[in-house]
Amino acid sequence: MSDAEANERRRGAAAGAESAARSEQSSAVSDAEANERRRGAAAGAESAARSEQSSAVSDAEANERRRGAAAGAEVVTSEQALAKSSRQSDIEALVASKGGDWDALLDDIEYADSEQIILNMGPQHPSTHGVLRLILDIDGETVTKARAVIGYLHTGIEKSTEYRTFTQAVQFLTRADYLSPTFNEACYCLAVEKLLGIEVPQRATIMRVLLMEITRISSHLVAIATGGMETGALTGMTMGFRDREEALHIMELVTGLRMNQGFVRPGGVAQDMPPGWEERLDYFIKVMNQRLPEYDELLTGQPIWKARLKGIGYLPVQGCLQLGVTGPPLRSSGLAWDLRKTVPYCGYEEYDFDVPTTTNADAYDRYLLRVAEMHESLKIIKQCRERLKEPGPVMVEDKKIGWPARLSVGADGTGNSLEHIRHIMGESMEALIHHFKLVTEGFTVPAGQAYAAIEGPRGELGAHVVSNGGTRPWRVHLRDPGFVNLQAVSAMCEGGMVSDVVVAIASLDPVLGGVDR
Amino acid sequence: MTETPQKPSAATDVAHTAAGPLTGPTGKGAPVPPTTPERHGMFHARDTGDTSGYGRLAIAPVTPAPATRPFGGYFDEVADALAAAMAERGIPESAVEQVTVAATEMTIYVSRAHLVALLQTLRDEESLRFEMLSSLSGADYGVDVPRRLHVVYELLSLTYRRRVRLEVSVNVDDATVPSAVSIYPTADWHERETYDMFGVVFAGHPGLTRILMPDDWVGHPQRKDYPLGGIPVEYKGHEIPPADQRRAYT
Asked: Where would I find the H helices in chain B?
């Protein structure tokens, strides 16, 4: 392989490395050719990036080394040569099929020069909160460069919604951030309702608030549990999952499913509260009142927990605003920005609760905030319980929008309401036609676009919905807080130690289902 | 708490426009093309196959209606402040193509030539202070629509608790938009995603690579001419065609 060729290939591979492309400033970006090359570039991101960095190795030096290797090859026996040549052809075939040359890349890396190592962490790693991949440049134990690579859980949720009706789209979006399904549903439904220009019934809004706050508790519990597990506080993990189970039981009671409920729909919610919900909710509140203080007892004052978390993942308020970071990381830097208070939706202005803040902007403060927010959520849940005493409709009266499915508890535990089936099958032809049209075709939404933002457990969760006046969303975009917050990984981890990377990421609490959608 | 802006009725628009001069962005830029394509038939049926008679039904494309004063709510204040700041900073009036107020939200359609200057103005001007870029995403308005690729900027002012949307539209064969990373660093990943999904090239982005799809992926999946699925599903010894080529009953 000629030098020119090798260089060409190396450059191509380097362009494929996401960080290498970052360092090569702008100019090539608009260049269609560069894009073409980047698309065709081989994998091997980190070594390529490295070879680009240590480009201090001059061509002459590289030639020298290559010549030395050739001289060494002369002394091999004929048998070895045969084996080597067959291996050589294998490698050549591999190179031809994959488009990269590892030998050429590795030759150019000057390992002896520094202690720098490139460490690939993930996407299969128990401490990266899912399929997050990190490329860490480390010098000893110090992280000099941290880059997050995402996309391993991309399932095309946004594209899929364009092929379903507005109501069906809920079932896709609830699966994006799988730890906060109710939030995904609610913010999408708020955007659709904005476009429709409808007001959902009061009781449906209260139920949404109730379910969102229960989900916030279960999501924060998982954040503490997985964060604890990743730092070795395994009791925190078992406690977190134990208590989350209580929250999921309530979700199952009300919606029928523990996760991915698809319960919140454009126009309201799917069902009214089930019989006996008051006792179950009271039990939940009682259990949580007992157990939430246990986190303070186990973790808050614990020296090891404090030593691991304090001062780690520091991100001040300026950094948060520039990087678009919201949620507990923003509030831990002292800014009391909670959309429930600042830009209220779903009637949050009528509830009595506080927005806790701290000022140290580190992982420990974010932990404290999550615990405090669970207490606040519990306050809201108690108020919802009082407000739900008043009966009322849970879906808009407009029969052209309100989903007609009426479920009731049958002999097998669940099923369609026999009354509703009797009505559409036996009594009214029009009702049957209407039911059929709404279920198969869906309802039309006026052309336009809307953006609805709510305060998810991780920060601002937004849904941008575009309609072309048809029965299917023309475009749905979820602004997932995890996606945006993950951009802060570099700022939070660089200069720290490898073990602190785990803590910093846990304090952001990204959920890769939402990040990659 | 912000007050909810109401969409003004057509009658009041005319009255106010006649009463006082427009002081907000005047919408002197290129006209905003329709944002929904012409639709044919019902149930997405094409040509034959639909015997209902609706098969050749065509619905005219929709163009976002320009709003006239008063916009309602805080939108007038934003428009006034923006117009004043634009004049002060020497940004031509043609930078703003149109202002639309719909679904209680304000959309400012801008030309890409002045996008970065406008973002800088919106962020830094004391009377505007849109400190945060909440979201940046793309939308493809259909194959036959002129300037079909749109880039949407959801701006948030923490000071005034206001939101405003900026929108830029470009053609597919010239899909270049200046990058907002220098103004809002958070745009980094958003722009990479928009490039990945729609093929909009953000000039000046520090490292515009794919972010969700693999590096060697061909095509931009969220474009409307890119089918759902798009690639065959491969099993050992068997292959299932992509979703759009399977037998369908729609």
From this structure: 10-19, 75-89, 115-124, 187-198
Q: Is A271 left (phi over 0), alpha (psi -120 to 50) or beta?
A: beta
Per-window interface: B 79-108 vs A, CB < 8 A: 102-105, 107
**Residue at A420 is within a domain:** no
- Bridge pairing between strands B162-170 and B105-110: parallel
Q: Which amino acid is at B104?
A: T
Is 80 exceeded by the pLDDT of residue A187? Answer: yes
**Of A171, A254, A167, nearest to A208 (Cα)?**
A254
Side chain identity at residue A454, one-letter code: I
Quick one: closest CA in B to A466, which residue?
B139
The amino acid present at B171, given as its one-letter code, is N
Pairing assessment for the beta strands B132-140 and B176-178 based on DSSP bridges? unpaired
pLDDT in tens, A30-54: 444 444 444 444 333 444 433 444 4
Distance CA B192, CA B205 (A): 9
Tokens 């492309």 locate to A21
Instruction: Reply yes or no on whether the pLDDT at B195 is more than 60.
Output: yes
Which runs of consecutive H residues, i.e. helices, occur in A296-342? 303-309, 317-323, 328-331, 339-342
Distance of CA A151 to the CA centre of its chain: 10
Mutate to test the interface with B, among A152, A159, A337 (most CBs of B within 10 A): A159
CA A382 to chain centre: 29
Which residues contact residue B38 at a Cβ distance below 8 angstroms, ignoring those fewer than 6 apart?
B58, B59, B60, B61, B144
Q: What is the pLDDT of residues A2-31, one digit of tens each?
A: 444 544 444 444 444 444 334 344 343 344
In sequence order, what DSSP letters do the residues of B154-191 get, joined into one string? EEEETTTTEEEEEEEEE-GGG-EEE--TTT-TTHHHHH
Give the total number of structural domains in chain A. Answer: 2
A98 to chain B, any CB pair closer than 8 A? The answer is no
- Whether a cis peptide bond, with omega within 30° of 0, leads into B70 is yes
Contacts across the A-B interface (CB distance below 8 Å): 164
User: What is the least distance, in Å, from the CA of A387 to any CA of chain B?
Assistant: 23
The domain in which residue A228 lies consists of: 157-402+443-516
Sequential DSSP letters for A248-272:
HHHHHHHHS-SS----EETTEESSP
Q: Please, which residues have CB within 8 angstroms of residue A64's CB and are 6 or more apart in sequence?
A: none
State the Cα–Cα distance between residues A335 and A77, nearest whole angstrom: 72
Angle of helix A277-295 relative to helix A363-387, nearest 10 degrees, comes to: 160
pTM: 0.78
Domains of chain B are: 10-28+62-220 (3.30.460.80)
Residue A374 has a CB neighbour count (10 Å cut-off) of 25
Determine whether the interchain pair A324/B133 forms a contact, defined as Cβ–Cβ distance below 8 Å: yes
**The last residue of a domain, from among A52, A78, A113:** A113
Which residue does chain B place closest to A30, by CA atoms? Answer: B203
The answer to whether residue A94 is domain-embedded is: yes
Residue of chain A with shortest Cα separation from B173: A32
Q: CB contact, 8 Å: A339 with chain B?
A: no
Nearest Cβ partner of B1 from A151, A156, A344? A344
Give pLDDT tens digits for A443-474: 888 888 999 999 999 999 999 999 888 888 88
Please tell me which of A22-31, A398-407, B69-78, B195-204 the model is most confident about, judged by mean pLDDT. Answer: B195-204
Task: Tell me if A421 is assigned to some domain.
Answer: no
Structure ipTM: 0.81
Contact A443, B12 (CB under 8 A): no
Q: Does A322 touch chain B (CB under 8 A)?
A: yes
Q: Are residues A183 and A109 in the same domain?
A: no
Closest to A228 measured CA to CA, from A91, A339, A129, A153: A129
* Inter-chain CB proximity A322 and B213 less than 8 Å: no
Rg (CA), chain B: 21
If you ran DSSP here, which 8-state letter would residue A467 be given? E
